Amino acid sequence: MTREQSMNSIQKDMEEFQGQLRRGSIQRAYRTLLSCMMGLRTHFKNKYPDASVSAIYQGVMDMTYFAILTPSLKKRDLKIAIVFNYEAFRFEAWLAGRNRSVSRRYWELLKDRKWPSYRVITPAKGVDSIIECDLTHGFDLSDTNPLTIIIEKGARTFIEDIEAALAKGKTT
């Protein structure tokens, strides 16, 4: 693709984006999604007072997330991110490291374990997760209470599974 073709393509994308914004549904949906994420963050902060809960990262329509750092994960420089993945259009939980070297170290430790419900993610440029867990397949944001229960239950199980695996590995 030439530079001119690329510029035309970007211009067409911007025109499409502007048209969608004029309709207003993108803004309403995005506000609803962010409100849901803020509610989830508050729920986790209140339900797990021993854990640290980060601010919400809104992303660039790739992901929106907040992190949960339980005491045992925090001492290992690990966190669980509660993520809305825009491309997959679902809520997920990710195990992530404080930085790439921490992520690589724990990936090496955990990659060969059997994770029937989770995806082990190979380290690469732009990859933020070590292990991923789907929390929802289809959801309704018109009533977030049932969704919050589903996400909290799935995230709690994920955290417990990760912490159990780390305890067996005797990693600190």
Would you summarize the structure shown here?
The chain has 172 residues and is of the alpha+beta class. The protein has helices spanning 3-23, 25-47, 71-74, 100-110, 144-169; strands at residues 52-53, 63-69, 78-85, 90-97, 119-120, 131-134. The protein has a six-stranded antiparallel β-sheet.
Describe the fold and architecture.
With 172 residues, the chain is α+β, with helices and mostly antiparallel strands. It has one domain. It has 5 helices and 6 strands; from the N terminus they run ααββαββαββα. It has a 6-stranded antiparallel β-sheet with strand order 1-2-3-4-6-5. Helix 2 crosses helix 5.
Secondary-structure blueprint of this entry?
Blueprint: H1 3-23, H2 25-47, E1 52-53, E2 63-69, H3 71-74, E3 78-85, E4 90-97, H4 100-110, E5 119-120, E6 131-134, H5 144-169
Antiparallel strand pairs: 1-2, 2-3, 3-4, 4-6, 5-6
Strand content: 15-25%
Q: Main sheet, how many strands, which sense, barrel?
A: 6 strands, antiparallel
Mean pLDDT: 92
Strand order of the largest sheet: 1-2-3-4-6-5
Number of domains: 1
**First and last CA, distance:** 49 Å
Q: What structural category arises from helix and sheet content?
A: alpha+beta
Specify the helix fraction band.
Answer: 40-55%
How would you spell out the order of helices and strands?
A: HHEEHEEHEEH
Beta strands, count: 6
Low-confidence stretches: none
The number of distinct helices, counting runs of at least 4 residues, comes to: 5
